Amino acid sequence: MKNHFDVLIIGTGAAGLYGALHISPEMSVLSVCKGEILLSNSDLAQGGIAAVTLDEDKYEYHIEDTMIAGGYANNPESVYELITEGPKDVMNLARLGVEFDKNEDGSYNMTLEGGHSLPRILHRKDSTGNAIVTTLSKVVSKLPNVTISENTQVIKLVKEGGMFFATLLIGQEQSVVSADYVLMATGGIGRVYEYTTNSKIATGDGIVLAHKMGAVVENMHLIQFHPTAFAHEDRERLLISESVRGEGAYLLNCNFERFMHNYDERCELAPRDVVSKCIMQEEKKTGSNKFYLNISHEDPKFVIDRFPMLYEKLKAEGFDMTRDNIPVYPCQHYLMGGIRVDLNGQTTIEDLYAAGECTHSGVHGNNRLASNSLLEAVVFGRMAALEINRKFKENGKKAPVSEPADMIEKCGNTPLPHGYRTKIRHLLQKGFYVVPDVEAAKNSINEVKEIQKILENKDFVISRDLVEARNTAIIANIILNDVINANS
Ligand SMILES: Cc1cc2nc3c(=O)[nH]c(=O)nc-3n(C[C@H](O)[C@H](O)[C@H](O)COP(=O)(O)OP(=O)(O)OC[C@H]3O[C@@H](n4cnc5c(N)ncnc54)[C@H](O)[C@@H]3O)c2cc1C
């Protein structure tokens, strides 16, 4: 692999791949990802992608739904950009080969999800994210100007003389590449929690890389807890998509009674943060953390056809979703905060761009509206790419800069002992899980700082595990700090 590229894209989820697709063909691009190309949160997305495509829908309705869900803490300009640009990108995905479900008359089959005032979610059965990234990865792999490097973790990023230098870890080997522009598309932070719906890549690496460079990282306490993850003991919890409630499923308490009407007139289709908090209140009332989803009143054939992936996965766990109550509980799902970006995906560091879940673009406010994040990933991935193209056209290639001396991390001999990451996750969960606990957060933060110091020990072998443990500690520290500040 050569060691200089015009653009380095870190991440091959929806934001990174769609960004790569829009970089102009005369620029060389290196796209890297930590695992296999499809291992990402994007691949796990089930429900769909929201966009105004029906005659009876209007931009204003989607904007208003987004603002209501976000508690009007959204940035109106970025919401406007998301919603007015989004339909173009969704139709482009269809043109590229994403086969969104259609009705018999050929029109798109729209579904409804919590917080949307009308059905506007395009979907591919219950595996929409997989359909999108599979299509995009095929298209991007064929681009002659894009080199894709899998199982390649960026462990260090610095800017020197206007040029970016990144240390890549492939297995145990480190190497350095330089780039004129960087697009950070590293996704979320779910694996900093004990229980999350997120993929194992979601350890906040890109946010830490940007933070260490001095980029503004903000609103990290804005974390979405999805109300209906399947309540089993695995760390990566199976999400029971919002669209299951959208298609009529009831949320039941430990007595198998519906309860949402006691808290919110939108019942099961209230926004996610509302439903998650209602579950916690109901738990206090009944003294039980047992909650269930039930869609057995709908036609079994419809349920199996509409949710084939969920049906099979739940069946493997011993539950028939056409008949049984499915145990659910809130779970970490999405990060609304992150690296601050403007409408072009520009961070506060010149020529460092970011898109997707690692960013705070302001589109989601305090709470993301369902199916708006795949949309954010593609719209802002494209915006960032177009801005990089514009700057490249205006300024040409940058003058070469020699590699800084300390890019390769010294590797010690001691393997990372087990247990640090587990401890960090536990401490964070105590401080903030659906409802913040400021006193617990204050206690947790001191312990996290102690672990952080231990992890900086130079004797440890440099490994993906070590880098992720360090990043996890830094992310937990930032979140706990923001939780304390936001609630004091
Ligand atoms: C279970 C589940 C269901 C969801 N359902 C929906 C839905 O229906 N609709 C919707 O809109 N949203 C949904 N979401 C949210 C949405 O999928 C994500 O927010 C969005 O796809 C994030 O895209 P991304 O490109 O920013 O990040 P990701 O898709 O997570 O991609 C991150 C990429 O960064 C790479 N990476 C990370 N760190 C490094 C590093 N140090 N070095 C190199 N590479 C790195 C990873 O390998 C990966 O390729 C869901 C999320 C989950 C978890």
What is the overall silhouette?
A: globular
Tell me about the largest β-sheet: 7 strands, mixed
Count of distinct strands: 18
CATH top-level class of the largest domain: Alpha Beta
Q: Name the structural class.
A: alpha/beta
The CATH architecture of the largest domain is 3-Layer(bba) Sandwich
Number of helices: 14
CATH superfamily of the largest domain: FAD/NAD(P)-binding domain
Overall average pLDDT: 96
The CATH topology of the largest domain corresponds to FAD/NAD(P)-binding domain
Bound molecules: flavin-adenine dinucleotide
Residue stretches low in confidence (pLDDT < 50, at least 5 long) are none
Taken together, the total number of domains comes to: 3
Describe the model.
With about 500 residues, the chain is α/β, with parallel strands linked by helices. It has 3 domains: about 5-220 and about 335-395, FAD/NAD(P)-binding domain (3-Layer(bba) Sandwich), CATH 3.50.50.60; about 225-330, Succinate dehydrogenase/fumarate reductase flavoprotein, catalytic domain (Flavocytochrome C3, Chain A, domain 1, Alpha-Beta Complex); about 420-485. The chain contains 14 helices and 18 strands. The chain has helices at about 15-20, 40-45, 60-70, 75-95, 130-140, 205-215, 240-245, 270-285, 300-305, 310-315, 375-395, 420-430, 440-455, 465-485, and strands at about 5-10, 30, 50, 120, 145-150, 155-160, 165-170, 175-185, 215-220, 225-230, 250, 290-295, 325-335, 340, 350-355, 360, 430-435, 435. The strands form 5 sheets. Strands 1, 2, 5, 6, 7, 8 and 15 form a 7-stranded mixed sheet that branches. Strands 10-13-12-11 form a 4-stranded antiparallel sheet. A 3-stranded mixed sheet has the order 9-14-16, with helices on one face. β6 (about 155-160) and β7 (about 165-170) form a beta hairpin. α4 (about 75-95) crosses α11 (about 375-395). It is globular, with a radius of gyration of 22 Å. The model has no long low-confidence stretch (mean pLDDT about 95). The structure holds flavin-adenine dinucleotide. Flavin-adenine dinucleotide binds next to α1, α2, α5, β6 and α6.
